[in-house]
Amino acid sequence: MTEHAISRRNFLTGAGVAAATLGAFGLTGCAQPKKQSEKAAASSSTASGSGKGDDGSGTNPWLGDKPQISDSDVTETIDADVVIVGLGASGCPAARAAAEAGAHVVAIEASSKINSVATDMAIIGGKTMATWGRGDGFMDKKTVINMHMEEGAHHSSQDIITRWFDDSGAALDWFIEADPSLYVAKETFEDIPEANRSNFLFPYMYPVPEHYDYTKEVLPCYPTSVGFSDLAGMMQKNLQIAIDKGAEVRYDTKGVELIQDDSGAVTGVYAQEVGSSSYIKINAKSVVITTGDYLENDDMMAFFQPECAENGIQKLSLDMDKNGAYTNVGDGHKMLAWAGAEIEQWHAPMIHHMGGGAGSDGRGVIGNNGFLWLNKNGKRFMNEDVPGQQLENQVERQPDRFAWQFFDGAWPQELEYFPANHGCACFYREDGTVPDWYANGQKINIRTPSDIQAAVDDGRCIKADTLDELLAQIDIDADEAKKSIERYNELCKAGEDTDYFKSSQRLFALQTPPFYAAKCGVALTLANLGGAVSDGDCHVYAEDGTQLKGVYVAGAPQGGRFNVQYPISLKGLSLAMCMTFGKIAGENAATQA
Predict the structure, then answer these.
(1) What's the rounded Cα separation, in Å, for the pair 183 and 201?
(2) Cis peptide, bond prior to residue 67, ω within 30 of zero
(3) What is the pLDDT of residues 327-356, one digit of tens each?
(4) CA 578 distance to own-chain centroid
(5) What is the pairing mode between strands 286-289 and 82-85?
């Protein structure tokens, strides 16, 4: 998968896999770009607002035929008020919210357990955030919402981002009530009492580093996020509340088709146990679709994100059933589309570049810091002072889709001037001062001399006493690279980057031995986000704008959240939206029931 093997277990141990999201870690690899199949190439040229072809067929090339299920295929019938299809970051809170509202809940999950692949949430306001002076009124609503809309090229739903802004603080307060033993840290790097080190909540960048002022950044990362040391445990406790109130949970059981009455209203779902040829019919007054993304559905990826295949972007998926088959294959998207839902056009890949030579914990050698980056032709090609998603976009444009990240022996003194954002190393510590029990979300912004030496020892980073020696060891046009370095050093000494306009506070000349280089290929796709047209109440809509009665959506199948690219201003926004809208969907579904 990469130059240096990554185990899924190591990748997730204590890690915040998405920024938001999954903060997710974008690990760099060396995969060569590959072309789409002819089928995928044809599909990619037929996109319209509903995801349907414009060849006159009116079909979705990724959808396939709707299953033809009859009562003779059903071997079990269950009656419920609310059915939750998918138990992840949105399904678990949805089940709890519906059960607390008095509904009889049946929850099904295609995997063998709940799905938890990230640890960070971007939260606005509320009592928990007030612990760090970040409660109600801390962030300017117009600034945050406008930034999100801009990052999604204004394809996103402003109503949805506004609902998250208004409700996420209270939703987090409610979510963590499920575990009274949760320890809430006073600051990012608090020395947590030993008894609480397996179960704590911490704020990101509190206090904010001295040299970071998000109000003056072109691409800011707002101080709105929290991280869990054990989010899976917290999700399980939320689900347990639903179970204690009578909810029935079935794993290795996937949703196959929504049941509709003559008016088109959803009245239940056909489900199927993994490996079975028969079906379970679950009658319900409302259904909540929380099935995750479609990263492992090649047809959907080829249609909605053909560039990922073209650019050799590999995938990191973790959700599997008891037979080892991936479950993030777009089942919920298909069920909704078959029922008449409109699937939005512009989807967003989550590809966080974490810098060159990422290790098994997802941390790049020196983070995705904006030191000097040169492509294989020895040319500088961008303002390096941009976050990981934008770095990925630029690396994909380079010859053979890789670049070299250079830094020198002065890095310990330079880190404090880099942005306090996802993936950027901005704290220097001497060896032995990073506790093993820290969550990876805490470690991600810290570097020590031993971190760099370990990367050199295992070949993830090249080190040399002179620049000539360094350039001789790497795949680069050395003559052009020397010219680029000389020019860059001139700009650094002048204090102004008139070539690419990097912030002057991050202009560091490459002049202090030893010298280092880390190879930066394309990163991994952690998710692909896009779904059914929805609103802030999690209703689902058809192409003609009519609401599909009886069905709600939250999490990755909910459209209107992220478009074009995953945003970087709000670390962990996807997961926060999953939790917030999962709660909203469960409550609204129960009200209908």
Answers:
(1) 6
(2) no
(3) 999 999 999 999 999 999 999 999 989 999
(4) 11
(5) parallel
Q: In the prediction, which pLDDT does 35 show?
A: 34
| Measured CA distances, 451 to 433, 448, 460, 522 (Å) | 12, 5, 11, 22
Q: Which is higher by pLDDT, 588 or 61?
A: 588
Tokens of 104: 């009889």
At residue 28, φ and ψ (nearest 5 deg) are -85, 145
Between CA 154 and CA 69 the distance in angstroms is 40
Q: Determine the pLDDT at residue 26.
A: 34
For residue 273, the cross-strand partners are: 253
DSSP string, 540-586: EEBTTS-EEEEEEE-STTBTTS--SS--SSSTTHHHHHHHHHHHHHH
d(CA 83, CA 98): 9
User: At 279, phi and psi to the nearest 5?
Assistant: -125, 155
DSSP-based three-state secondary structure for 533: coil
The label of the residue with tokens 């609401």 reads 547
Q: Distance (Å, rounded) from C-alpha 182 to C-alpha 180?
A: 6
Is the full-model pTM beyond 0.85?
Answer: yes
- Return phi, psi of residue 434, to 5°: -105, 105
Strands 402-408 and 253-260: unpaired
Q: How many residues does the chain have?
A: 593
Q: Count other Cβ atoms within 10 Å, centred on residue 288.
A: 32
Q: Please answer whether residues 520 and 373 qualify as being in contact, where contact means their C-beta atoms are separated by less than 8 angstroms.
A: yes
Among 218, 229, 97, smallest CA distance to 587 is for: 97
Containing 192, the helix (H) or strand (E) segment is: none
The Cα 66–Cα 277 span in angstroms is 16
Peptide bond into 207 cis (omega under 30): yes
Work out the average pLDDT over 539-544: 96
Q: Tell me how far apart the alpha carbons of residues 428 and 157 are, in angstroms, rounded to a whole number.
A: 40
Q: What is the per-residue pLDDT for 24?
A: 34
Residue type, 421: N
Give residues with Cβ within 8 angstroms of 158, minimum separation 6.
Answer: 145, 149
d(CA 149, CA 151): 5
CATH class of the domain comprising 365-521: alpha beta
Non-local CB neighbours of 54 within 8 Å, separated by 6+ positions:
46, 48
Reply yes or no on whether the pLDDT at 484 is more than 90: yes
Type of residue found at 468: D
| 73 touches 278 (CB < 8 A) | yes
The alpha-helical segments, DSSP class H, found in 379-421 are 388-395, 411-414
- The residues that bridge with 105 in the sheet, in sequence order, are 82
According to DSSP, the β-strands at 446-447 and 539-541 are unpaired
Residue-wise pLDDT for 450-462, tens only, equals 999 999 999 999 9
The 82-85 sheet, strands edge to edge: 248-250, 105-108, 82-85, 286-289, 547-553, 539-541
Give the CA-trace dihedral at 243, 246, 247, 249, to 10 degrees. Answer: 70
- Can you tell me the distance from the alpha carbon of 183 to that of 193, in angstroms, rounded to the nearest whole number? 9
Percent of the chain residues topping a pLDDT of 70: 90
**Amino acid at site 364:** G
pLDDT in tens, 227-271: 999 999 999 999 999 999 999 999 999 999 999 999 999 999 999
